């Protein structure tokens, strides 16, 4: 893109959008103008891409969440115009970096599952794959987190407050959605998904819910103002908020409405496009279309699809079911059987009775099949889609799905061997593994330009950005002192930048020369932030006992949001913050260790944390973390993993070598063996260090402000039998961390571990994952535009 064009574009959009001249523009207005200038530039290719894809077989990714983060920097980089735009702005005395920073994150997701969807659509675009993402345009994404006096507080996220430059409302494709008690509009907003180094522009279509009518004119004339807009508010409520990740709080009627809303809109949209090509002939529908369910959240799509075919297109039930069986694939992201979504059938009956009728018919077809295969009635019960007055969404997805996949090797094995074992016996060929991945564009090229430059220097080209396996080519430098020194000086630079950012955001000063030990992820008991916290407290006491304790100066960094109704998670947030304060108040210990809990952890914060890390903490109870993807982001930024034998940690260590990482703790088999006899009180009695730190929860050492949080944590460990094996893994954790500190002394050896992680990370590109989905489930091929 020519600089002159960029400049003219910015001035033009400042004029027509904001009615001002450059000299008067605020940062967000410049952000809008730059974004629109780029958007204008890509529209033709975007339309051509859509047209090209529509001629062949297409995949649809159905996901309730897309955790996109910021768009501007990534889009400029992927289009290859970053430097030009930077130059143009700097000639105008504007710092592009500052403009990037004012963009609100699109936080339309909770964590891993939503971020995975975002990486997937980006990879598909980069690979020219004919894939469209469907989701919900929440007006408020994941809540904003504040920390007040050590407690988490929440407030609403308002990412749309300045308008949103990166999407286009498509009124021509509005769909009408029917519930038994209301009818609403689904309005699509299309977001361009810009791949790296390609002309193709893919589409993320996010549905917003609106009322059919703005307000009731008669009520308004009657001066009943509130009543006049109540219909509108009710409709807008449907796409208003993203539900926090909470499986206990099932039965929320609005969540079910939401799921049906975007499922129905997406099915209608896909069918409309099919009819534009083939009329009412559905015989070849599954030849041209395939849909992937991102967990069970969009699974009601299956029933809605069959409903439309039967009721509106006059297809026979058996044919409709047969088409659905070729059309849908299902990805599972959780191991826990109790975490699988179930809906009360009375709720379904109340909102969309016809959907329940269809579900009964699908269930009947399933039961018939099982009887034909001579399953007895008792066995059949486990498979049923409707049982105990509940609709079991995973059973529906597995029965109808053409494929069922887990998200890491261990996870898929556990599904086959335990949770879904009965299904695996019935349909062994449906089960597949697709180990997760991350996009190297955002998670290395964009967030760590310095390391990217080193890689490009060594490999002689930027091809690795699109073909991450090329990183293997770095291995030959593993004993090259110059290269290792450059790597570590880049790491230091990124730590300095992170320290500056933390100072700006948190008002906390940390020492970039200290060791940065980082745990960042949603707060959950199974992820065991508590184990890390107890370890740090133990370290505090050991330094008190021996001020000369031989460890490197260390900064422990946490970032995590706790689900607002998850009391124990909030207790852990407070506990970590109290430990931070406790240590800060000790002039002796605080010379050696420091704890920082960064507030409002989100994608854009993550982009600063991963590059500035020395250690990646991935310490979930074995068997609980389906995959993890943050672990991959650390690895790609040349940081060793400290973790349990769980999820993708296993594959990470397989690639880069156990000796370059720290694997500790009970494994799935170990837990299986001890689970009935496990007695956390024994550890508490026998291990004085454990007793010392666990007692701080109840002896007044640390203060939870009379909330009862800490006593509750104490009870979770000792009275409720420590379900996540925190105490069982304590000593093993400690030993491993000791090894980390020991190894860190040898600077060269440490640099080699970091480097090995970098050159072994190629397989964790989401490009690889998407190619596997494309080849093994979707059967789609790249369709580059001319
Ligand atoms: C369910 C019911 C009601 C309301 C919300 C929910 C809900 C929402 C989000 C349930 C689960 C989620 C998100 C789950 C998630 O992020 N899982 C993670 O998926 C990643 C990508 O596969 C894995 O790497 C992680 O291991 C897994 O925890």
Automatic annotation (TrEMBL):
Cofactor: pyridoxal 5'-phosphate
Class of enzymatic activity (EC top level): transferase
GO CC field: cytoplasm
Molecular function terms from GO: glycogen phosphorylase activity; pyridoxal phosphate binding
EC number: 2.4.1.1
Keywords: Carbohydrate metabolism, Glycogen metabolism, Glycosyltransferase, Pyridoxal phosphate, Transferase
Role of this protein: Allosteric enzyme that catalyzes the rate-limiting step in glycogen catabolism, the phosphorolytic cleavage of glycogen to produce glucose-1-phosphate, and plays a central role in maintaining cellular and organismal glucose homeostasis. Phosphorylase is an important allosteric enzyme in carbohydrate metabolism. Enzymes from different sources differ in their regulatory mechanisms and in their natural substrates. However, all known phosphorylases share catalytic and structural properties.
Name of this protein: Alpha-1,4 glucan phosphorylase
Organism: Clostridium chromiireducens
Encoding gene per record: glgP_1
């Amino acid at each position: 893109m020519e600089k002159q064009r960029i400049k003219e574009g910015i001035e033009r959009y400042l004029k027509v959008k904001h009615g001002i001249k450059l000299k008067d523009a605020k940062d967000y207005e410049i952000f809008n103008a730059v974004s629109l200038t780029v958007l204008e530039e890509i529209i033709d290719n975007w339309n051509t891409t859509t047209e090209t894809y529509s001629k062949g077989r297409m995949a649809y990714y159905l996901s309730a969440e897309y955790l996109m983060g910021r768009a501007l920097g990534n889009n400029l980089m992927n289009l290859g115009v970053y430097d030009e735009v930077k130059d143009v702005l700097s000639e105008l005395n504007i710092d592009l970096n500052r403009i990037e920073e004012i963009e609100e994150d699109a936080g339309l997701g909770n964590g891993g599952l939503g971020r995975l969807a975002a990486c997937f659509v980006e990879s598909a675009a980069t690979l020219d794959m004919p894939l469209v993402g469907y989701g919900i345009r929440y007006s408020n994404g994941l809540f904003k987190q504040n920390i007040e006096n050590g407690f988490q507080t929440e407030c609403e996220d308002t990412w749309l407050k300045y308008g949103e430059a990166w999407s286009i409302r498509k009124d021509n494709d509005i769909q009408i959605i029917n519930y038994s008690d209301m009818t609403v509009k689904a309005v699509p907003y299309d977001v361009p998904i810009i791949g790296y180094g390609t002309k193709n522009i893919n589409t993320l279509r996010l549905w917003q819910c609106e009322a059919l009518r703005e307000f009731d004119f008669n009520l308004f004339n009657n001066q009943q103002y509130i009543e006049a807009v109540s219909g509108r508010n009710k409709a807008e409520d449907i796409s208003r908020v993203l539900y926090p990740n909470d499986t206990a709080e099932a039965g929320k009627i609005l969540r079910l409405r939401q799921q049906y809303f975007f499922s129905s809109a997406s099915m209608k949209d896909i069918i409309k496009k099919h009819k534009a090509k083939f009329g009412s002939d559905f015989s070849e529908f599954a030849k041209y279309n395939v849909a992937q369910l991102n967990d069970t959240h969009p699974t009601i799509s299956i029933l809605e699809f069959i409903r439309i075919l039967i009721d509106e297109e006059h297809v026979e039930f058996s044919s409709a079911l047969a088409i659905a069986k070729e059309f849908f694939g299902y990805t599972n992201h959780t191991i826990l059987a109790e975490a699988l979504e179930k809906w009360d059938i009375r709720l379904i009956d109340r909102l969309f009775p016809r959907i329940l009728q269809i579900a009964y018919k699908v269930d009947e077809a399933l039961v018939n099949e099982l009887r034909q295969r001579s399953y007895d009635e008792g066995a059949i019960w486990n498979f049923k889609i409707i049982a105990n007055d509940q609709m079991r969404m995973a059973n529906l997805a597995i029965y109808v799905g053409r494929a069922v996949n887990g998200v890491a090797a261990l996870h898929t094995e556990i599904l086959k061997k335990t949770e879904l074992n009965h299904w695996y016996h019935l349909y062994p060929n449906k089960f597949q593994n697709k180990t997760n991945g991350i996009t190297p564009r955002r998670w290395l090229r964009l967030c760590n330009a310095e390391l990217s430059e080193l890689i490009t220097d060594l490999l002689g080209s930027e091809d690795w950005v699109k073909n991450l396996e090329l990183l293997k080519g770095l291995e030959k430098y593993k004993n090259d002192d110059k290269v290792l020194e450059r790597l570590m000086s880049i790491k230091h630079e990124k730590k300095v930048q992170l320290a500056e950012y933390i100072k700006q955001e948190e008002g906390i000063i940390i020492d970039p020369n200290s060791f940065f030990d980082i745990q960042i992820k949603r707060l959950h008991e199974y992820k065991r932030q508590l184990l890390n916290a107890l370890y740090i407290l133990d370290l505090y006491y050991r330094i008190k006992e021996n001020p000369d304790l031989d460890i490197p100066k260390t900064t422990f960094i946490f970032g995590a949001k706790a689900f607002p109704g998850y009391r124990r998670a909030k207790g852990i947030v407070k506990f970590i913050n109290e430990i931070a304060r406790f240590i800060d108040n000790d002039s002796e210990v605080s010379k050696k260790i420091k704890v920082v809990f960064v507030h409002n952890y989100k994608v854009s914060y993550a982009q600063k944390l991963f590059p500035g890390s020395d250690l990646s903490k991935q310490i979930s109870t074995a068997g609980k973390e389906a995959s993890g993807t943050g672990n991959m982001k650390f690895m790609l930024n040349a940081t060793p993993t400290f973790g349990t034998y769980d999820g993708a940690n296993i594959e990470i260590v397989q690639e880069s070598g156990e000796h370059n990482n720290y694997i500790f703790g009970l494994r799935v088999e170990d837990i299986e063996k001890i689970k009935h006899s496990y007695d956390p009180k024994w550890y508490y009695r026998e291990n004085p260090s454990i007793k010392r730190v666990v007692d701080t929860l109840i002896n007044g050492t640390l203060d939870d402000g009379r909330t009862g949080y800490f006593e509750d944590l104490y009870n979770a460990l000792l009275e409720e039998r420590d379900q996540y094996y925190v105490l069982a893994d304590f000593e093993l954790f400690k030993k491993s961390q000791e090894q980390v500190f020991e190894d860190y002394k040898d600077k060269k050896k440490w640099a080699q571990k970091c480097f090995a992680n970098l050159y072994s990370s190629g397989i964790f590109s989401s490009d690889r994952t998407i190619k596997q989905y494309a080849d093994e489930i979707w059967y789609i091929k790249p369709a580059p535009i001319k």
